[in-house]
Write a structure and sequence with these properties.
- This protein is mainly alpha-helical.
- Helices cover 46% and strands 0% of the residues.
Amino acid sequence: MKAERQGALYRLATLTGALPQDFPLEVADCTVPPRVAGTLPVGDGAALLRRRPDIR
């Protein structure tokens, strides 16, 4: 379990560009993943494709 949390912390550090030791201790001790409070508006597919520079 500790190894899984450490791996998740390293993945989070990679995604954010921060060092794992720079995160608050509460992040390293997290046992339940955070959840999104509500739905996220995404719009329609055409608008999404227009916003993505890698597809233009």
